[in-house]
Amino acid sequence: MEKKPHFVRREFLPRDVPSISLALLLAAVLLLNALLYLYLNKFYTSLGRVETERGLCPFGHFRFGAVKNCSPWLSCEAINREVRKLKCVGEGAVKKVFLSEWKEKKVVLSQLTNSELKEDFLHGLKMLKALQSKHVVRLLGYCEQQFTILTEYHPLGSLRGLNETLHIPKYKGMNTWHRRLMLAIDYVSVIRYLHSSPLGTLVMCDSNDLDKVLSQYLLTSDFHVLVNDLDALPLVNRSAGRLVKCGHRELRGEFVAPEQRWPYGEDVPFQDDLMPPYDEKTDIWKIPDVSNFFLGHVEGSDIVRLHLFDIHAACKKKDPAERPSAQEVLDTYRKVLTLLIREAAMPGTREML
What we know:
Layout: H1 16-55, E1 61-62, E2 71-72, H2 76-82, E3 83-91, E4 95-102, E5 105-112, H3 118-130, E6 139-143, E7 148-152, H4 162-166, H5 177-195, E8 201-202, H6 210-215, E9 217-219, E10 225-227, E11 235-236, H7 281-295, H8 301-307, H9 309-315, H10 326-345, H11 349-352
Antiparallel strand pairs: 1-2, 3-4, 4-5, 5-7, 6-7, 8-11, 9-10
C-alpha cells in the first residue's frame, strides 16, 4: 500500500512577527534619516548659495532686490540727486536714521548727528565696506564728506521687536522652537564671522546689555539675522599683543563678562588707564543670554535649552581662555538642531528599538 505524501502548510511562527516589524521599523528609520539628511543638506547649501550670490558682485558694488546685475555703490552726487527722505525712524548717540526712497524702493539713510563722534561714524562705514557678506546689512552707497550712509531697508526692524513680530498673525507660524533656534544660529554665525573676519578678530563692543545687543541686529523678512551697527568693532591682534577695551567708562552688571568689570573692588575708584584689556571671549560670555531671548517660551524651547546646557555653561567660564570659540558654539548649535529635528521626525523610535 502506497503512502500518500503529506503536504504541510507552513505558517509564520509567532517569533517571526517581531523580526518583520523590527525590519520594517529599521527601514522606516533609514528612510527618515535619508529625508532628514536631504533637508539639512538643502538648508546649509542654500545658506552657502546666498553667500556665493552676494559674493558675485565685486567690491564697491551691490545687487538690490530681484535685480540680477550689480550696481556701483551710490556716490555723494547720486545720493543727493536720487534719494528722498521720508521720515526719521531712529536716532542714537552717533547718527540719525531716515526711512528713504530710491528708485521707488525703500532704503535707509543714516547721517551723523554728533560731530564729536565722526571717527566712530567713519569707523562704522569702514567696517561696513570691508565686511559685506550674508551676515552684514547690504551697503548701497555713502558720502564721507557729508557723513551719510545708504543701506538696505528691512521692514521688520531690529531684534528688539522680535517677540512682537512673532505675535502678528502673519508670522505666528514662525513662532516655534525650530525657527527660534535657527535665529540663534544666525546670531552665533555673525559672531563667528566677526571673530574670523577678513580684517582679523573683531569684538562686538556695543553690547553692554541685552537691549543694546538686540538693537545692533536686523530681522529680515525671510527671518534671518543681520548685523547692522558696526561703529564699535575694535581689533584683537594676539601676535602683536594687542587687546581691546570697550569704551573708557566702568562697565557693571552680570551681562558683561567678568574681565570687563573693574577688578580692584569698590574701595578703588575706577581709572581707565588701570583697567586691563581683554579679547573676543567677552562676546562668547554673552551668547547664552542672547540665545535665551531668541528661544523665548514656546513649546519645545526648554528642551532646546537642556541640550545647550553644557555649551552655555562653558561660555560662562570665568576664565576667558576656558570658554569655547564662536565656531565651537556654532557647531554645537547646529548639531542640536539636527538632533532635535531627527527626534521630532521619529518620536518614540528610541523606545521602540
